Amino acid sequence: MNIHTYIPSIISCILIIIQLVILPSRKKKIIRQGGTCILPLKRRKSFVLPAATVFCIILNILVALRSFEYLYQVILCATSALAYYIACREYITSLLGGIYQSGIFITGSFIPFNSITAFPAAQWDDYESYLSDKTSFELQTTRGSTTLTFFSIDECKKAADCLLEQIPRLKCE
N or C: the chain end with fewer CB closer than 10 Å? Predict the structure, then answer.
């Protein structure tokens, strides 16, 4: 084996280490993007990052030790680095679950308030009774429809009320 066969694994491992080192600064940047927390939601414990760390390292070692074609090595190592990036993002947003000044952190993503175009449940005459037995509701965003799922009925109602308080134009439409 030549040294060039190890290059994709080495680069992928370096990218993973860089992502792990800059994780705190990414978290601060994402928190700044959201502003201060208005309504904290139940935050789930995410075991994705530790599992992804082990999986990506094992994948890179496997790619380095096995004799795959070079293109397959590059694809597997790029997949490993991308999967670790996604796992880091999921880990950060799972720690920040809640409604913030400029958006919502829920289910591994951030939804800015300016991208929310409609709240279909709020268009009902008595939307509170509509949400009385639900743990999720739908939002229309500029990217399409998004369903927000909560841990309890009470949390869902509080989130809907807080959302309408933060974005009053949603109730009027």
Answer: N
In this structure, what token pair is assigned to residue 118?
Answer: 């409609």
Contact 16, 56 (CB under 8 A): yes
The SS3 of residue 104 is strand
Cβ–Cβ < 8 Å for 77, 8: yes
Q: Measured between alpha carbons, how far is 146 from 108 in angstroms, rounded to an integer?
A: 12
* Residues 21, 89: Cα–Cα separation, whole Å: 14
What is the C-alpha to C-alpha distance for residues 62 and 8, in angstroms, rounded to an integer?
Answer: 12
CA nearest 12: which of 71, 70, 68, 83?
Answer: 83
Round to whole Å and give the CA distance between 112 and 118: 13
Residue-wise pLDDT for 37-50, tens only, equals 888 887 777 788 89
Q: How many angstroms separate the CA atoms of 111 and 159, rounded?
A: 14
Average pLDDT, the chain: 85
pLDDT, mean of each 10-residue run, the chain (173 residues): 81 93 90 85 81 92 88 93 92 85 83 85 69 79 85 84 82 59
Structure pTM? 0.78
CB 104, CB 111: distance < 8 Å = yes
